[in-house]
Design goal:
alpha/beta, two-stranded antiparallel sheet, globular
């Protein structure tokens, strides 16, 4: 069996986890108390759930936050009985939006407990595929403790795949003043310790829920349920039968041309509400075309301003390989979708027979087919450029720096992280230039 362990870190990670497990339970027929509806030979659920001796399905996950309120919500929520209580870890004092507290002081006391729980879950796996980490990079716990846990995982489980779903700061909406500091410091460590990072941002997802799904005042639950669909599509091949299966390691091999260029843009189609679904035909070609539209991207980034290095299209539901081939041929002829000159093929496809499931009373329409696209594009440099600019404005005046230094962090770490991100921006620039890597500047190592 190919198992995956999920790590939900900080408030964003835990709340996102809540939405994901709600969806996984629906897909596999697992009740909120962990009992399994379906019986028979179906072992697909074992990718995400382990079977306890009492005959219950227990999620293979660890949820951790440095303050107790969010974890308490999980314990008292609808799916509270589903999770093993020792996998829900809460500290007593918050990281207070401070990367240094999450990484050096408060978080450091907790990291061994977290890794101990991960080790116990890993020992119960037959063929561990890898880890999915969920966190934001703007807060204190998600950025600080998140990077500390990923650092330790990369040394303890070197060969295992580590996929990271990180909520990046939005251009306009912000939940904390020191977001740019936390993001730059956290990205510095993500560059080193994750294999693939999926960029998500609240503003882009707010716009999708308001404009496409017609929700006037979206809550975080609406946003998280949308992201959960993307995560479900990524792992569908591990869990269900399909015409063309995609393994977790295949994302890396096909989408990461150089180790540092591993940040991916996600998009999903169809993004329509139940009312609008009656008026749409939603053919494979239409889905593929809308996956390439900027309005369907889950991060604020305009892909037309960059070039694609690689694309992975994960189809699920009633999709035939011929339709997929025709759709891709159609996309390749479009002027709006341009690839770098050194990527002749450009596309990786996955086809899964299982149609997407839907949360009862959810926002998305019930559809027979859907596509999730992951793309590595030079346009992502826009996201880093935006954060770097904000960082420079604050760091130029050394504003708020004393809070970080007071928690035992050296000021030199700010400069080191900022230089690393400047190098990353430069790397993206080189990727898009028509000069092939062998002909000039040395390329990313």
């Amino acid at each position: 069996m190919r198992e995956v362990i999920s790590l939900h870190i900080g408030q964003a990670g835990v709340q996102l986890g809540n939405a994901c497990w709600e969806l996984f339970c629906l897909e596999h027929g697992v009740q909120p108390d962990g009992t399994l509806q379906k019986t028979g030979k179906d072992t697909a659920f074992q990718t995400f759930f382990q079977y306890s001796s009492a005959g219950r399905c227990v999620p293979r996950c660890v949820m951790v936050d440095l303050e107790p309120t969010v974890i308490d919500e999980v314990k008292t929520g609808k799916y509270g009985k589903l999770f093993a209580s020792e996998g829900l870890l809460a500290g007593k004092e918050d990281a207070a939006n401070n990367y240094a507290r999450g990484h050096y002081t408060v978080g450091k006391d907790m990291v061994d407990t977290v890794l101990d729980k991960v080790r116990k879950i890993a020992e119960r796996c037959d063929g561990l595929q890898g880890f999915l980490a969920f966190h934001s990079v703007g807060g204190g716990t998600g950025s600080g403790l998140g990077s500390l846990i990923l650092e330790r995982l990369s040394s303890d489980y070197t060969k295992k795949c580590k996929l990271d779903f990180c909520v990046y700061p939005s251009p306009q909406i912000s939940t904390s003043v020191v977001e740019p500091y936390n993001s730059v410091l956290s990205t510095h460590s993500l560059l080193e310790h994750t294999d693939v990072a999926f960029m998500l941002d609240n503003e882009a997802i707010y716009e999708i829920t308001m404009k496409k799904l017609g929700i006037e005042r979206p809550s975080y639950t609406n946003l998280n349920r949308l992201i959960a669909q993307v995560i479900s599509s990524l792992t569908a091949s591990l869990r269900f039968e399909g015409a063309l299966n995609v393994d977790m390691n295949e994302f890396q091999v096909n989408l990461v041309p150089y180790p540092r260029i591993h940040f991916l843009l996600c998009s999903y189609a169809p993004l329509i509400s139940s009312e609008r679904a009656f008026h749409e035909s939603l053919s494979t070609l239409e889905l593929t075309t809308s996956a390439f539209e900027a309005s369907n991207m889950l991060a604020k980034c305009d892909p037309t301003l960059g070039k694609y290095m690689a694309c992975c299209l994960m189809f699920r539901g009633d999709v035939s390989p011929t339709d997929v081939s025709n759709s891709i041929a159609n996309i390749k002829n479009k002027k709006t979708v341009s690839f770098v000159s050194w990527s002749p093929t450009g596309f990786k496809c996955g086809i899964n027979n299982q149609a997407p499931a839907n949360v009862p009373g959810g926002d998305l329409a019930d559809v027979s087919r859907a596509v999730c696209m992951l793309s590595n594009t030079t346009a992502l440099a826009q996201v880093f450029h935006r954060i770097d600019n904000k960082f420079d404005l604050m760091y130029g005046k050394r504003a708020f720096v004393h809070w970080y230094v007071g928690e035992g962090m050296e000021e030199g770490e700010f400069q080191e992280a900022r230089e690393d991100l400047a190098a990353l921006e430069k790397d993206y620039e080189e990727m898009g230039s028509e000069l092939s890597p062998g002909e000039g500047e040395s390329v990313v190592g």
